[in-house]
Design a protein that fits this description.
Elements: H1 2-21, H2 34-41, H3 46-68, H4 74-93, H5 98-128, H6 132-153, H7 162-181, H8 186-196, H9 211-218, H10 223-245, H11 251-270, H12 275-283, H13 306-314
Helix pairs in contact: 1-4, 1-5, 2-12, 3-4, 5-9, 6-7, 10-11
Length: about 325
């Protein structure tokens, strides 16, 4: 039974992701969400946009029907949702090519963990049979901890050492435990802490997709663009690695220089990519930031492999 509950939760997460993936962008909208910005970077034709709008409408109608429908078992409901998702994926595959579908799959993988964690958290609280006052107290405690962590992370005046920041993090954790201890037992708090460290990485048995790399591949850039992006990306990695190794730098100075390196990298991309492509890349940058240090085989994060790039040039 527990297995089917988890499967159903994962399916709901996937459904929400696919619903968003079918949305067609408003060409006049500013600061677009990731999916809309990515659609615009592909320069979809009017026909493609109409097809996606139609597929999205059919999918929404089907999911609304399933939501109100009674089933004999959780297994039957799960199977019906799974079939609806498969049908929707087939509809998308008739409009988009394999590289574009891979980008959407990567976005679905990236969105699934948070939604799945929400489903698991709801199921956990249900199993404890908490009343509304206890649930609200837990919600408020979690919100307070997010705010405390956010304030610490974005404190631009901070010049403290790593040890001081570690102590501040520990203080926040202790305050959170004190808040939760007014509502939950020590064992329940331990379970919550275990859930906080759980990583759900996309469909079972499948490695996570590098969304930046998949997005760049979907644009089929020419050799000069790929080489220019490769050079700019490697320059950023090297600069970040150098700053990371400079122990003499104060926290604020290191952060300022890192921000300057990122700004220079962004400016270099402006001369390589179109505005819509750059906007699409920016829309996912908060989730897929360049890793520090050199990349394996000389390839930067978000760059197609040499074999992949060569294949595009040959066609």
């Amino acid at each position: 039974m527990k297995g089917w509950m988890l499967a159903a939760g994962a399916t709901v997460a996937l459904v929400a992701s696919l619903t968003a993936s079918a949305a067609v962008p408003d060409q006049k909208t500013e600061r677009l969400p990731a999916r809309q910005a990515i659609y615009q970077s592909w320069s979809l034709s009017d026909q493609q946009q109409e097809q996606l709008t139609s597929a999205n409408k059919v999918f929404h109608e089907r999911m609304t029907t399933l939501k109100d429908q009674s089933f004999d078992s959780a297994r039957a409901r799960h199977q019906a949702i799974k079939e609806a998702v498969q049908t929707h994926r087939q509809a998308l595959s008739e409009v988009l090519d394999d590289e574009q579908l891979k980008v959407l799959e990567g976005l679905d993988q990236r969105a699934a963990p948070m939604r799945a964690r929400g489903e698991l958290m709801a199921a956990l609280l249900d199993s404890w049979q908490l009343d509304d006052t206890q649930r609200q107290a837990i919600h408020d405690a979690r919100q307070q901890m997010r705010q405390d962590l956010g304030a610490l992370r974005h404190d631009k005046s901070a010049t403290d050492s790593r040890e001081e920041r570690r102590q501040n993090m520990e203080k926040i954790r202790e305050e959170q435990q004190a808040r939760l201890s007014r509502v939950l037992s020590a064992e329940q708090i331990r379970v919550l802490e275990m859930m906080r460290h759980v990583e759900l990485r996309g469909p079972k048995g499948k490695p996570p997709i590098d969304v930046r790399r998949a997005l760049v591949e979907s644009w089929h850039l020419d050799a000069s663009q790929l080489d220019a992006m490769q050079s700019a990306t490697m320059e950023l990695h090297q600069k970040m690695a150098q700053l990371h190794d400079k122990d003499a730098l104060e926290h604020r100075e290191r952060r300022q220089q890192m921000e300057g390196a990122k700004k220079a990298f962004h400016q270099s991309l402006e001369s390589i990519l179109s505005p819509t492509q750059l906007a699409a890349l920016d829309s996912i940058s908060t989730h897929d930031r360049p890793k520090m240090g050199p990349q394996p085989h000389g390839e930067g994060k978000g760059m197609p492999s040499r074999d992949k790039a060569s294949a595009h040039r040959d066609h």
